Amino acid sequence: MDSHSAPELVARAREEISVTPFRNRFLDLLDTGRIPRERLAWLAGEEYRIVGSDRRSFALLASRQPGPPADELFLGLAQGEGQALALLQDFAAALGLSEKDLREYEPRPAAQAYPAYLAQRAAFGTAAEVALAMLANLEEWGGYCARAAEALRAHYGMDEKAVAFFRFFAESPPGFEEQATAVVAAGLAAGEDPNAVLRAARLLHAYETGFWDCLVEGLG
């Protein structure tokens, strides 16, 4: 594949992810108010670790790039994670959790596989791998966040301030699709193996599904 096939690779990654149906049981239960508040505290604690890790991963990726479009893409994503981290405090506060509680929360290994893999790719992978992985998975993640915001409002009495973290991620950043596709194209033009780039997207998706499965483990 050459640089002109980047949109095709994006479409293929999304197709490969979509053909493996995933039932998000956490959100299914949240939609009907059946997730205990203790598990919402798990969600806040895990996200505190994930967002902080992803912020550093994107900053590292930006520092490894010689210039645009990759450095601009990852700097923007790092800044977005910083905004999200601040918004997460409001969700935690609605659950009666302080920042100290979030710092002291003991994360579950399976829930942290996603940021661990992203950090690995940030340190040892390529910009195209991470750009494609984010492109292929962001729409699904955004849909989950939109569902979470609505369910928390409807069944847990949370106001808009408390769910702003989820609203933030429900929509892709402006220009993200074009920027990320350009990064994928640059990687392919430089000779990157498209199969390796696709593999990163598949693995990141698998680790994300593992995150949600971990949160619902043991619930009926």
Structural class: mainly alpha
CATH topology: Heme Oxygenase, Chain A
Order of helices and strands: HHHHHHHHHH
- What overall form do the CA principal axes indicate? globular
Mean pLDDT score, rounded? 95
- List the uncertain runs: none
Q: For the record, what is the CATH homologous superfamily label?
A: Heme oxygenase-like
Helical run tally: 10
Give the DSSP E fraction (strand runs of 2 or more residues). Answer: under 5%
Strands, count: 0
CATH class: Mainly Alpha
| Largest sheet features | none
What CATH architecture label applies?
A: Up-down Bundle
Taking the alpha carbons of the first and last residues, their distance comes to 46 Å
Rg, alpha carbons: 17 Å
Please, how many domains? 1
Q: How much helix is in the residues?
A: over 70%
Q: Please, could you describe this protein's structure?
A:
This protein is an all-alpha fold and 220 residues long. It has a single domain (3-216), classed as Heme oxygenase-like (Heme Oxygenase, Chain A). Helix content is 74%, strand content 0%. It contains 10 helices and no strands. It has helices spanning 6-18, 25-30, 37-64, 70-94, 99-104, 113-124, 127-155, 164-170, 176-189, 194-216. The longest helix is centred in the middle third of the chain and has 29 residues, at 127-155. It starts with 5 loop residues before the first helix and ends with a helix. The model has no long low-confidence stretch (mean pLDDT 95).
What's this entry about, in short?
This is Thiaminase-2/PQQC domain-containing protein. This protein has about 220 residues and is mostly helical. It has helices at about 5-20, 25-30, 35-65, 70-95, 100-105, 115-125, 125-155, 165-170, 175-190, 195-215.
